[in-house]
Fold this sequence. Notes:
Number of strands: 6
Mean pLDDT: 83
Structural class: alpha+beta
Helix content: 25-40%
Strand content: 25-35%
Radius of gyration: 16 Å
Amino acid sequence: MNVSTIQSHFASYGWSCALETELVVTAGFSIGDVDTLIVVQWADPWIRFSIPHLMPIATEKTTPETLTKLLLLNYETRLARFAISPDGLLGIYADLCVMDDEFTYTDFEVALDSLCYFAETAHNRVWDLSQLPVDEV
């Protein structure tokens, strides 16, 4: 298993990708009118699929209640999870442990499909939540 396997899986998926470093591959897709970056990082034995910049979330409207509701989204997901970066951006992540160099196309497809599905279905919900006035959260 190496990063060329990831590139090959992206090609089989029908998406182009870019090799950013010897351990990082990027691709993109759109959620409505928003172009979205996907990052796949290889750190033996882990592969992290991420959309690190799904949307800005830390604003003057953000309250502990808003953040609690965002964390509850993790309860509704399998494989992928939401997290807030130190710079206030909401991302979604999926980490897979690859044992014995077995990272099949099916493993790749399930991880990427899950990540994109949760990003797409949560996008409007999270955006609406992040824009609520403090007294409506």
